[in-house]
Amino acid sequence: MTDTIYLIHSGDKSSYMWPVWYRYYKKYYTCEYDTIFLSENKSMDFPGVKFQHTGSVPWADGLMTYLEKITAKYIIYTHEDYFLTEPTNCKVLKDLIKLMDDNDMYLLKCCGHWAGSPEWHENTGQFIETNLYENVWRYANKNQYLISHQTSIWSRDLLYTTLKIGEDPWGHELMGTDRLRARNLPIYAYRGKSPLESAETMVGGEIREGCEHYFVIEPEEK
Asked: What is the pLDDT of residues 178-200, one digit of tens each?
């Protein structure tokens, strides 16, 4: 489908992780949205995944240039260190995208238990007409991470306008949150079970404690 893409963004220095990411993608991804893997210069042969390249430019510059070239209305955005951990729930994902479309929503985080503490949310009840309303909450504008790179559904236009030339991912989460907070736009989180249930496997360039097993090569894969 051309109105929504599943975008995995990675730098070439993390290419050693790509086959591990793909192992879980191949096992669990079942949705109809095209999967784009956005890297700098490298590619790998992953059936079902299309590689696009930014060239050797800063993270934000490359993403901005890519977003300028595409027509998709929505971007399901994440990074290569988020490994799918169970089959994707395509119905919920499709319902969430429709909810965004019907209500002119710009950003809906669908990261499940990572959506943050309840005190950072407001259950407005505005989606009471849907069967998802109990789990779709608005982020309080004071939230520390209005922007994060956990799996989220973005309006392409909003994602583009949150980026700043020369910025890296961490800067985008921190300074980008400050810039977005000043705009006071309604940002939402789906606090139910994520339709793209994932494990964030890396922190500070190292394997996150408790995630070591994701990198173990099974005998049949050797």
From this structure: 999 999 999 988 888 899 999 99
Q: Which residue has the higher pLDDT, 117 or 145?
A: 145
Nearest Cα to 201, choosing from 11, 8, 20? 20
Whole-model pTM: value is 0.91
Three-state secondary structure along the chain?
CCCEEEEEECCHHHHHHHHHHHHHHHHHCCCCCEEEEEECCCCCCCCCEEEEECCCCCHHHHHHHHHHHCCCCEEEEEECCEEECCCCCHHHHHHHHHHHHHHCCCEEECCHHHHCCHHHEECCCCCCCCCCHHHEEEECCCCCCCCCCCCEEEEHHHHHHHCCCCCCHHHHHHHHHHHHHHHCCCCEEECCCCCCCEEECEECCEECCCCHHHHCCCHHHC
**Which of 77, 74, 106, 110 is CA-nearest to residue 186?**
106
Closest Cα to residue 127, out of 195, 180, 197, 190? 190
Architecture of domain 4-216 in this structure: Alpha-Beta Complex (3.90)
Beta bridge partners of 83: 199
Q: What is the pLDDT of residue 134?
A: 67
In the predicted model, is pLDDT for residue 68 greater than 80? yes
Residue with tokens 């009471």: 128
